[in-house]
Specification:
mainly alpha, 11 helices, disordered N terminus
Length: about 210
């Protein structure tokens, strides 16, 4: 009986140790990734996955490295594994959406961004990129709604005002589009003023 308990305890300890090792390898891989030391980072992440094949964070970070080198098939595969291992991994859905955007799979990207938002309703970057994907599909009103949501979360988002301004102008709402561009400029986006000169200061032909 005592032997069985001891064996059980050792098995639990070994599992915990391996799990910790995967986390440690992943943390080291993250540190190296942030320093731009991608090869060393990749080696650590491979080791993490070897230790624990279910460690979602390692697949996600490895996908980020592959994406850096435009290995879209490889990064997609790793992001697939990350969300398979952890279906609540909002960042992995967002990253996979970004790969789909690069591949011009806009509907697929929107689906991934929407999943990320369903997990984290304040995921500003996911709203922004979903708005961009909708813009490419000329779904202007839906894209405007995403920008408005960003502004509700962060009223000082110059990027959201800038994009909403462009979208409103494209949608035919010149006045409000120009006001959004003005707000973006007020918040520090100087490019907005160049667009205001181009789009907002033309003489009304009916005057």
């Amino acid at each position: 009986m005592k032997l069985a308990v001891l064996i059980g305890a050792l098995c639990i300890a070994a599992t915990f140790s391996w799990s910790q090792s995967a986390k440690e390898y992943t943390n080291k891989g993250r540190e190296l990734y942030e320093k731009g030391e991608y090869v060393e980072s990749l080696l650590n992440l491979n080791k993490a996955i070897e230790v624990d094949p279910n460690y979602a964070a390692a697949y996600y970070l490895r996908g980020n490295i592959k994406d850096k080198f435009d290995d879209r098939h490889g990064s997609m595969k790793d992001y697939n594994l990350a969300v398979e291992k952890n279906p609540k991994f909002a960042e992995a859905f967002f990253a996979r959406g970004n790969v789909k955007m690069k591949l011009q799979d806009y509907y697929g990207a929107i689906d991934d961004y929407s999943t990320a938002i369903s997990i984290n309703e304040n995921y500003v970057e996911a709203y922004y990129n979903r708005g961009k994907a909708k813009q490419y599909l000329q779904a202007y009103q839906d894209a405007i709604t995403d920008c408005t949501k960003i502004i509700q979360i962060n009223p000082k988002s110059k990027d959201a005002y800038y994009m909403r301004g462009i979208l409103r102008i494209e949608f035919g709402d010149l006045k409000n589009g120009c006001l959004d561009l003005s707000k973006a400029g007020e918040l520090g986006d100087l490019n907005a003023y160049e667009l205001i000169k181009e789009k907002c200061n033309t003489k009304n032909p009916h005057e």
